[in-house]
Every structure is written in C-alpha cells, then in structure tokens.
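A protein record in our archive is deliberately plain, so that people and models can read it alike. The record that follows is passed on verbatim for readers who wish to inspect the format.
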Amino acid sequence: MTFSSNSTENYLETEVLTATPQKLQLMMINGAIRFAYQAQQLSEQQEPDEAWDRLARCREIVAEIHGSVNPDESPLMRDVAAIYMFLFQELTDLHAANEYSRLEGVLKVLNEERETWEELCRQMPEAPERPREEEKEITASDAEKIIGSLEENSDSTDSRPQGPLGYDPDSDYHSSSGGGISFEA
C-alpha cells in the first residue's frame, strides 16, 4: 500500500483537529525534538543552511509553546514559562555561537517535557472538561469589586449590625427571591 503526500497531510490534519489539548502539546514537543535532532545531525554533516532551517523550526515551536503558557495563573506556570524562555534563548545563542553541540542540553529538557506530557496523556486521554461560566472561580479582585459595590449600596445611616463582609445578614439582598450573588449553577 502506497501513501501519497496528500494522504499523509490529510492524516496529520485530522490528527491535529481531533487531538486533545494535552495531545497537541505532546505533538508540538515531539516536533521540537525532531527538528533539534535534525539540526544537530545536519550541523555534524557540515550543512549549516539546512541545520539553521531545522533549528529555526524548533525555535518556532518552542516560542509557540511559551506563548501558550499563562505565567499569571500560578507559580508552576511561571516556572514552565521560564523553562521555555530558557530553551528559546539557548536555541538562539547556540546558533549565534555556532555551537550545535549545545543542543544536547536542550534535548534533555525537551525529552523530560515529552515524558511528562506522555504520562499526562496516559492518565487523561480525554480533553479536560471546562467549567461552565457560572462555576468559574471568584478571584480576589472580584471579591474586592463585590465588597466595594456592597459598601456603595449600603445606607450609611443604617444602624443595623453588619456581617463580616460589610453586608447586612438580615437584608433581602442575598435572599433566594432574586438579585445578589449566587454560587449555585
């Protein structure tokens, strides 16, 4: 059985379009590794233009992965973003210095990332369920806005006791009859 270029492209397109987010991440890491190995081999074969092309493709993938990481989400995400920024800088520096032997360090990190994402794909073969809009977490800034609006709406001449967040626990504001803040779906 012979596969044409179109068959391969169609297969890859289907693979990408149906992949879970974690599988897409793994595919990108695999691509970066493949291009890094090719750059290393082409450099050893004294083919600098082709080596640079493969290195540039590896860098593009690393930049794409770095761009998809939101470092504001958590300390872990800041660490992950820093890893990919390091890899991008290392790929840039090793090309400028023409020291393709330094790809070994980049490949070690990428292979470690691949192992992590392979394990994640094994443990979570389906796409994670996204929270519904009404289930999203309330952040500290949201809480400040809520408290601020409660304070603005409160009557300063009211002598009724206030709850810990500045609202009247006996008021109808938080009752189930309407309005207010609801944490139910």
The chain has two domains: 12-123, 133-174. Confidence is low (pLDDT under 50) at residues 158-185. Residues 133-174 form one domain.
